[in-house]
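Review box. Two proteins, two foldings.
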Amino acid sequence: MFAKISPPLLAFGGSLLLLTGLIAALYWSRDPDRSQPLVIHCAEAMRIPMEAIAKEYEKEFRHKVEIRFGPSQTILSSLELTQKGDLFLPADDSYIRLAAEKGLVHSGDVFNLARMDAVVIVRPDFPRKMETWGDFIAKDNKIGLANIEAAAISKVLKQQLQLAKLWKSLEDRNPTYLGNVNEVFNSVHNVKSVDVGIVWDVIAKPHASAKVVKLKELENVQARVQIAIAKNTTQRDNAIHFIRYIRAEDKGYPHLARQGFSDIEKRGPMDERVEIVIHAGAMLRPALEDAIKDFEKRENVRVIRVYNGCGLLVSQMKTGETPDVYFACDASFMNQVADRFDKPTTISNNQLMIAVKKGNPHQVKELADLAKSGLRVGVGHEQNCALGALTKETFIAKGLYARVAANVKVTLPTGDGLVNNLRAGGLDVAIVYRSNVAPFDDIEGTPIEGVQCATALQPIAVSKTSANALVCQRLMDFLRTPESRQRFEKLGFGWEVKEKVEEPRTK
């Protein structure tokens, strides 16, 4: 058979194989650098599952994982003192917030893992009943607690018992304070040096012989377990990869489940890559690109972006193409397809500006000046984009529409295109958004004030028919974090998100 293949075809096949080999070599050469160990500052309460997860991760990816265990306050102090490490995993999210306040982690780099609940652990041969709070603090009991200055469980316990006016009754019993929650369990269950103690349920769960009692007074003593990427990490992508491994249903999740954690943040299989489509107004592109790239890495998701004028995007949707997420340049365009999406959330605002060359050579200072004879004006397309529609409304509101129309030489679906024309000398003035002007030093802008329609509001919403609604919701929440706000405001956008945004829990 091969004898019938012509020499040119064989040469082509050889070239194709060579090209394929080169592409493969290039691909593998871009694998992440795993020469340095991944360092995790980790709470004692997470020791058992994290040791198992790290062992399997090292075997699968040949990347050393170095876990530095300790009480939550201790590992926070260690992270602050050394300024080294890649991940921070305390036993309660209050320590994550402290780390963010100290500038040790970014709030946008925090990931939910699970929940733990406080329970009473009782000495195996304890002779009396243990059913009520009174039974627990009885005068003959030797009580063990984790170090209140260092361990998350005692910090949370004290806060909740003070609210319930029960802390003093426990404090008056002069409990024995031990180093960490594992030491409390060991002292009660194994050494039997104390009679009862309070531990996280996941500490006792692996021990079938452990005598555990759940008291109603401890129902609110819970820990929300989160993991955060350290601000000074030198291997951010590897840190994100490890977090994905912890939460993957076929990797870390089974270890957390066996340990007895509640509300575990479970994602799909490690190698599964969900794909979602977002349609976004063109003016949002600079604020979205870096955020979406980061989201793709942390969630192992592929986000297909379609940027265009909102009029064009809405036209596509009305002919049947509905994206998973729509991020509109203005609420008026979201309203046109509201029946296709869940309730939208407004993220930002953007003001119309009169943009001119640096120094304002034509002395255009207000909207009426755009009617000056011989002036070359550029505006957004009235049907194809929010910019054009809002510009038209603004001119009409000021009674200038007909007068300025005579000077309009260019209409485009994006503000970027108008700015490029202005910078190249094809226009004398353009009506664009503040975010279109902000990146450039050779143009300046005057905000159009006193007209309500001159400020665009940018809402975002998830399609009612999206097959990946939870992923889309996480993207929306990711775009509402303080780090996202910094991106938007740096580009000239205003911020509309009022509530504190945290990563959503899996339903």
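Next protein.
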Amino acid sequence: MAFIDKIKEKAKADIKTIVLPESEDDRTILAAAKIVEEKIANIVIIGPVKDVQDKAAALGVSIDGCRIVDPADCADFDTYVNVLYEARKNKGMTPEAAREILLKDYLTFGIVMVKNNDADGMVAGASHATSDTLRPALQIIRTAPGVKLVSAFFVMDVPDCEYGENGTFIFADSGLNQDPDCEQLAAIADSSAKSFEALTGAPAKVAMISHSTKGSAKHALVDKVLEALRIAKEEYPYLAIDGELQVDAAIVPSVASSKAPGSEVAGHANVLIFPNLDAGNSAYKLVQRLAKAEAYGPMLQGIARPVNDLSRGCSYEDIVGVVALTAVQAQM
């Protein structure tokens, strides 16, 4: 069974409610129809009821199992105004401003629904920048207790691949933090290992990726990865982690035996932590396009409730997959 099919089965075992606020995007409507058809999650679509229904009809799909919420005609609107006001009043928010934001900004409306426990998570980003999804999530839901920073990962499912966990990997950070420092890299490694184990049920084996393996190159960028590894081992001693490793040494046993003999992680890594966003984002796109991998994300980790981003180049099938992943995160 493919990775995403296993995730869907997990999602079906304990149905959660996920908000899709981008009702203006055809992919949102197509995904919503597929999700309710497969009974992966309960779906809330934000937007004018007739507009959403007309779009579904034009696309030839049924969204009868979805709840459509129009902010302009919502029985809980005053409650949501107060939730937003209370969350942001120390930053100058007024009830009048909160009302105006919630009428116009469907992403913020969805976040407030999650904050108010009227939904278990939200997925957006098909037609918005990552910042549009992340900003209200951090402002209203905020980070989970004990989390040092929010980061983003992609679940990569590579077909016919003997590496990783039967071809399944987490690549991080591949969507958010541009140039994390040593402490942030270590924190990303810890969060990503936890995400991998929660989603796959398999032990995480974390590789700190570099252009160098075990001292084969000398550079400040290598030093950064080595210091991140030292911090990770000190602060998160339960992690199975090693570095610095080139990608081939991280995932290919025969290469690891030559470049990093004796390492318990090298050659078997399933969580790859990249030194910066240039590397992580490029890696996921290369694997997605050249290896025909399924790429789910960017998934956000470290927020108190599940809120996940989408690539603006995503398909509606990608949205279905990320909703399933978000539902599983909500179960935890």
